[in-house]
Write a structure and sequence with these properties.
17 strands, Dihydrodipicolinate Reductase, domain 2, 2 domains, 529 residues, alpha/beta, globular, 8-stranded mixed beta sheet
Length: 529
């Protein structure tokens, strides 16, 4: 770790290290899928490399594809090697840690079968019993649903029918062994389907067994939002409607739909990103101080944010779809020309909307959200614009107006926090310049290979649900966006309406401009301020 950044001193404190999780087995349904290869297993490898994977651990892959544990291991290792040294893959190291990989590979087994039939779950039961005997997992098990969303309910039903979700009776209310289920997004396709899925899985599982995962919340910067707000007396007193003019949350991607055309045609940008990723960021920045740093206290405060949000108005929501253009110097094709996409597709690849939170802290403060594909640069950020100071004190000087102050929480690709404010230019003339103070995590802390799932998987293993959505929270987020989904379903849009590599459709700029003459922060690298 650097001793300090230029011009700053840092207080040296002992670093508190996490302990390895309890013994357990992890069963991945969809072991041959992209999520498992690109994110799940690399994250488990990183946990093994950093000593956080339990010594008594087993990894059981379940998939319809024919194969052996040896072929599965070889395929996973090839994928892992392709990530090493690749910053985008989360691996900026020189080579594979052979010992760390061996520790993980030695604990793997493979089950082939159809996830909709009951016989495969008997094979899973046998694999868990073998893992308990061979690896000392003590009966603890995590079932990870890395499958298409339409199978969520079916897999959980089959697990329940096989008795695999039953926990052992212990003393003092704690089970003698535990069973937990991790569910990927999208959790539902609408408010109604989210309610139906919650009701269905809660017939088999208790809420404390369910981990609805959002990999955005595995990023250190997202988790640091609470520390930044609540551990510093400087910021929390101005974190309200008296000082903040508005908030912008941006999740911009340079990639297009890639090979996910079939999935994206059924989902679109709003369903794919807003009720989960974007709202996860919103809840962290808007929540009230919790009574403690525990799962129940934090999730209660996040739930209060969603409960205080009126449903989104279709008049304050914009959708877009990318046409052909140039992204990062490469010519790209229109969404409608992507594989598995309809030639007259009405699916949005961009969404922007205005929301409000009707409580004492935020009443009257607009929250502008936007997310899109084929943007000019990849960035995820939360930007708070403060109300401008009066310029009257600068009369009879060259200063005619004051620029706004921005506090920006950078989530990706570079994690950090920046603050923009005005200073006097050197010299005898009273003139002002906007300057920016930048904190970057990489400048202060050692960079560890990370794909975003390490913290979340570790939290599942230790039973910490703080970073996971609760049933009521999921249903509230769908309630908020449902009127927009309904309105869009009734009217065919005029697509495409923005060029790849641009900041998005012009109507999104118009939406913000007509709301108090505000403007989006620019995404184009050459035009960022």
């Amino acid at each position: 770790m650097p001793e300090s950044a230029p011009g700053f001193a840092v207080e040296a404190r002992p670093r508190h290290e996490a302990k390895p999780a309890d013994p357990c087995a992890m069963v991945i349904f969809g072991a041959g899928g992209d999520l498992t290869k690109r994110l799940m297993v690399p994250a488990l490898y990183n946990l093994s490399r950093t000593g956080l994977l339990p010594e008594k651990f087993a990894l059981i892959g379940v998939d319809m594809a024919q194969g052996t544990v040896e072929s599965w291991q070889a395929h996973l290792l090839d994928m892992l090697k392709s990530f090493v040294g690749n910053a985008d893959g989360g691996f900026q190291i020189d080579g594979i840690d052979e010992a760390a990989w061996a520790r993980l590979a030695d604990k793997m087994s493979y089950v082939q079968g159809d996830l909709t039939t009951s016989d495969v779950y008997e094979k899973v039961r046998a694999a868990l019993e073998e893992a308990e005997g061979s690896h000392g997992t003590r009966g603890n098990a995590i079932f990870y649903l890395a499958v298409v969303s339409r199978l969520f309910g079916t897999v959980i039903d089959r697990l329940g029918e096989a008795g695999l979700t039953d926990e052992g009776e212990g003393v003092g209310g704690e089970p003698s062994f535990w069973r937990r289920v991790v569910i990927e997004k999208p959790f539902g396709h609408s408010q109604e389907t989210a309610r139906e899925l919650n009701a269905r899985i809660l017939r088999t599982l208790k809420e404390d067994q369910i981990y609805r995962i959002d990999h955005f919340l595995g990023k250190d910067t997202v988790q640091s939002i609470m520390a930044f707000r609540f551990a510093n007396g400087l910021f929390e007193p101005i974190w309200n409607r008296d000082r903040i003019d508005h908030v912008q949350i941006t999740v911009a991607e340079t990639v297009g739909v890639e090979r996910r055309g079939k999935f994206y045609e059924e989902t679109g940008a709003l369903r794919d990103m807003v009720p989960n990723h974007v709202f996860a960021l919103l809840s962290m920045v808007a929540m009230e101080p919790p009574t403690g740093f525990d799962a129940a206290s934090v999730r209660n405060k996040k739930a209060e944010v969603f409960a205080a949000m009126p449903a989104a108005s279709p008049e304050w929501a914009v959708r877009g779809q990318y046409g052909a253009g140039v992204v990062l110097g490469t010519r790209t094709k229109a969404y409608r020309h992507e594989p598995d996409v309809a030639a007259d597709s009405s699916t949005e690849t961009y969404v922007a909307m205005r929301l409000e939170i009707d409580n004492w802290r935020w009443a009257g403060v607009p929250f502008y959200l936007r997310t899109g594909k084929h943007m000019p640069q990849r960035t995820t950020e939360i930007a708070l614009r403060f109300k401008q100071a009066p310029a009257a004190v600068f009369q009879d000087t060259p200063v005619t107006s004051l620029r706004p102050n921005w506090l920006v929480l950078n989530i990706a690709p570079e994690e950090g926090i920046s603050l923009q404010f005005e200073v006097k230019c050197p010299g005898p003339v009273v003139d002002l310049a906007a300057v920016k103070m930048d904190f970057r995590y990489n400048n202060w802390f050692p960079k560890e290979p990370n794909v975003g799932y390490e913290t979340l998987i570790y939290d599942v293993m230790i039973g910490d649900q703080m970073l996971f959505m609760r049933a009521d929270m999921v249903e509230e987020t769908w309630r908020i966006v449902q009127p927009v989904l309904d309105a869009w379903a009734e009217k065919k849009p005029d697509f495409p309406n923005y060029a790849s590599g641009s900041d998005g459709p012009e109507v999104a700029n118009e939406m913000v401009a007509c709301d108090g003459n505000r403007a989006w922060r620019r995404l184009s690298p050459s035009m960022r301020k």
